[in-house]
Automatic annotation (TrEMBL):
Coiled coil: none annotated. This is Kinesin-like protein. It is found in: Cytoplasm, Cytoskeleton, Spindle. SUPFAM superfamilies: P-loop containing nucleoside triphosphate hydrolases. Belongs to the TRAFAC class myosin-kinesin ATPase superfamily. Kinesin family. KIN-5/BimC subfamily. One of its GO terms (cellular component) is spindle microtubule. Pfam families: Kinesin (PF00225). Keywords: ATP-binding, Cytoplasm, Cytoskeleton, Microtubule, Motor protein, Nucleotide-binding.
């Protein structure tokens, strides 16, 4: 099957480029255009003036969407196939990467206020990838007459802290008073992934419900303004849709197919270069950028095939580990502005996006679960939660002082890092010992060559000695004969 072939070789991360139209401000100030898109050739040209010389740099991507491309065009050409794969049981991730104000949120969420939707609940033309994906998922599932469930989560990652954008109001109000509670911890799920402890999973029953959720979530996102120093430009948001679909085997067994779509609106990429310089001096700036910086390092390590990939260094890369070099199908939408005042950031986005084209993932379809196994898992989960509720109520769980908890957490992390380093060390040692073994084998071979040569030479020598003895005997005989003849004469 072609699937196996694909699996062995790996599939490149798909990278798309979108250039937004000029904003009204830019039009008013007559900002010169430096980015030209050729959607058909899949090329983007950037013109620069260096020392009075006009230089054009051209970049090629898997798809290019110029300023005239509508939300619908991008969705139909780039996202429809991805959502179909999610429905087939793959995990897929779409990242939006780019400078603040270039259209990441516009592309991912769009303008999708319920008030703007059409008469029959159809999506407004400005709706972005998230509402369209939800719509496509429900349309497909309903047309298949399948039994299914759709769950969504929506979180924000700011300053290495996770906030649930779907948490019910009253909880988040209490939480904001009690600040520590608001942050949700990341936990290993025991299957090689991580999960966000306590994250609200909202079951969605129809596409229109998504408006309510998005409105609720987006309102919570810290601020809608896109000025450089505003928090919204420094936070990442992750919207995930998980689909379970019931299937029946010919034998009448019930199987559950599962697919997940992650939609990531990253922090503004200018934060890497600008406040990144202050990292270390200002802890906050460092923390804010940690996830974006680590994402860049992970991409570099993957592209350059370095042994150690620093996934563990940030929450973003821990959460999305499988989307970078893993079993998930991944797509990056890089966004740029056409105007000259963004030139430097535009070039850095284009370079970054080009690099990311070289990442290879090994997509694998999720294994179908037997319904009975799934139910058993869920019962287990219910038992665990019950015990937690009980422990909290009775206060007979394990309670440790916060300082100790943090200390133990940091010790645990240090140990995990140490283990990782040791792993690398072991690998190096193994390589070295292999080298030594090879050298040893070569020496042994050389030795046995030499000893066989030696025994051949010895044999030769013996023969020569024998020959010599015979010759000497003959010589003596001859001499004797000669003397005898002389004597007779
Ligand atoms: P980001 O999330 O990257 O900071 P936004 O999505 O907030 O950027 O976009 C900034 C502004 O530009 C918004 O007012 C948005 O409506 C507008 N915009 C972005 N991309 C497009 C586009 N392709 N077409 C029309 N308007 C756009
Ligand atoms: Mg945004």
């Amino acid at each position: 099957m072609s699937g196996r072939h694909e699996k062995d070789k790996g599939v490149n991360v798909q990278v798309l480029l979108r250039c937004r139209p000029f904003s009204e401000d830019e039009l008013r100030s007559n900002a010169p255009q430096v980015v030209t898109c050729n959607d058909y050739q899949r090329e983007v040209a950037v013109s620069q003036n260096i020392a009075g010389k006009h230089i054009d740099r051209v970049f090629t991507f898997d798809k290019v969407f110029g300023p005239l491309a509508q939300q619908k065009d991008l969705y139909e050409q780039a996202v429809v196939p991805i959502v179909n794969e999610v429905l087939e049981g793959f995990n897929c991730t779409i990242f939006a990467y780019g400078q603040t104000g270039t259209g990441k949120t516009y592309t991912m969420e769009g303008e999708c206020k319920r008030a703007k939707s059409g008469p029959n609940g159809e999506l407004p033309s400005e709706a972005g990838v998230i509402p369209r994906a939800v719509q496509q998922i429900f349309d497909t599932l309903e047309s298949q007459n399948a039994e299914y469930s759709v769950k969504v989560t929506f979180l924000e990652l700011y300053n290495e802290e996770i906030t649930d954008l779907l948490a019910p109001e009253e909880i988040s109000r209490i939480a904001s008073e009690e600040k520590q509670k608001k942050q949700l911890p990341l936990m290993e799920d025991g299957k090689g992934g991580v999960l966000v402890r306590g994250l609200e999973e909202e079951i969605v029953a129809s596409a229109t419900e998504i408006f309510t959720l998005l409105e609720r979530g987006s309102a919570k996102r810290r601020t809608a303004e896109t000025l450089l120093n505003k928090q919204s430009s420094r936070s990442h948001s992750l919207f995930s849709i998980t689909i379970h679909i019931k299937e029946a085997t010919p034998e009448g067994e019930e199987l559950i197919k599962c697919g997940k779509l992650n939609l990531v609106d990253l922090a503004g990429s200018e934060n890497i270069s600008r406040s990144g310089a202050r990292e270390g001096r200002a802890r906050e700036a460092g923390e804010i950028n940690k996830s974006l910086l680590t994402l860049g390092r992970v991409i570099n390590a993957l592209v350059e095939h370095l042994g150690h990939i620093p996934y563990r260094d940030s929450k973003l890369t821990r959460l999305l580990r499988d989307s970078l070099g893993g079993r998930t199908k991944t797509c990056i939408i890089a966004t740029v502005s056409p105007a000259v005042h963004c030139l430097e950031e535009t070039l850095s986005t284009l370079d970054y996006a080009c690099r990311a084209k070289n990442i290879k993932n090994k997509p694998e379809v999720n294994q179908k679960m037997m319904k009975s196994t799934l139910i058993k898992d869920l019962y287990g989960e219910i038992e665990r939660l019950k015990a937690e509720v009980y422990a909290t109520r009775e206060k007979n769980g394990v309670y440790i002082p916060k300082e100790r908890y943090y200390q133990e957490e940091s010790e645990r992390k240090a140990m995990a890092d140490q283990i990782e380093q040791m792993g690398v060390l072991i690998e190096t040692h193994q390589k070295q010992s292999e080298e030594w073994r090879e050298r040893h084998d070569a020496r042994v071979r050389q030795c046995s060559d030499l000893s066989s040569k030696l025994s051949a030479t010895e044999k030769n020598l013996n023969q020569t000695i024998k020959l010599l003895t015979c010759t000497e005997e003959e010589l003596t005989k001859c001499r004797y004969g000669l003397k005898e003849r002389d004597f007779r004469v």
